[in-house]
Amino acid sequence: MEQAATRKIIHIDMDAFYASVEQRDNPELRGKPVAVGGSQQRGVVAAASYDARRFGVRSAMASSLAIRKCPDLIFVKPRFEVYKAVSSQIRAIFAQFTPLIEPLSLDEAYLDVTDNLVGQTSATELAKTIKDHIKQETGLTASAGVSYNKFLAKLASDYRKPDGLYVIKPHQGLAFVEALRIGQFHGIGRVTAEKMNQFGIFTGLDLRQKSESFLTQHFGKAGHYYYSIARAMDHRPVTPNRIRKSIGSETTFDQDLTDYSTLTDALNPLMNSVWGYCERTGVRGRTITLKVKYTDFSQITRSRSSLSLVNDKATLARIALDLLQSIIPLSQSIRLLGISLSSLHENHLQETGQLKLDL
Predict the structure, then answer these.
(1) For the segment 126-170, what is each residue's pLDDT rounded down to a tens digit?
(2) Annotated catalytic residue, options 22, 102, 108, 250
(3) Any catalytic annotation for residue 28?
(4) Which of 63, 156, 220, 318 maximizes the CB count within 10 A of its CB?
(5) 70, 78, 69, 92: which is closest to 19 by C-alpha?
(6) Which residues pair with 287 in a beta bridge?
(7) Which structural domains are found in the chain, ordered by start?
(8) pLDDT of 5 over the 70 cut
(9) Would strands 287-294 and 34-37 be described as parallel, antiparallel, or unpaired?
């Protein structure tokens, strides 16, 4: 804990990034509810403006549900090349202050500014400066979280969105974490939170009262991580140039699916998203994995590896559909479907971070 407390970590998260870029570039969209994504029956919201979020529209929501929540919602097709270019601008700003940059996606990154390039001793002042530079150079707002480890910095960046800045100092970490609802913890999704609730774990304080052996018994290897973050501890360093492990896209359906033809229709946009990223970056892989979550929240995966790299969309689609066929007939209806490409070829890796492929 002593050593961790000496670190100064900033987490920068752009505010409604895709939607904000669209509103910046098209003045007619400003002040209106905007969703980036497909408006068709099986489309999914990739990003929602804050004007849309007031109606309950969220990323990864089915477009049909989003329209019901907000009948005036304006759908805009994604322009990933533009988002990528703006992201490069933002990363160039980060590089003016520290070489220790760990991108998580196009719109967020960790910065270790313990020893920075401008000799600024206050991480809070540095975060303000970075936010100002982003605003001046891109016309967009970012939220920043400042703390002594990555877990707390990421929590802090969410605390006062949009255009927020929040600091969690070393003496505040434990109290901050114990007051959080379990669902607010990064790394604890809805299903895990529901399982924790069954054990009487509803807050960070409840989590801290469980032993490490209890957590590993019931949550596997992740139990070690849960034990640490309940104590506001996170020793993970900010790691520049992370090697990407996989590229994936998944979606949860508004209504559970039950037949093969409907599932193939749902799989197509996921495959398009994964392959689109491969084409933009030059990344290729050998292993294709199908992820399925059933109506009772049980989950399975099916994988197949190729001796050679998957070099075209047709091969990706053929293997993905074979994997889907392998689970037919269905034991029960399906609520979530996902496809990913892994065993990536390092010679093709041109970027760090992981692009969010929410359709």
Answers:
(1) 999 999 999 999 999 999 999 999 999 999 999 889 999 999 999
(2) 108
(3) no
(4) 156
(5) 78
(6) 305, 342
(7) 17-79 (3.40.1170.60), 174-229 (1.10.150.20), 246-348 (3.30.1490.100)
(8) no
(9) unpaired
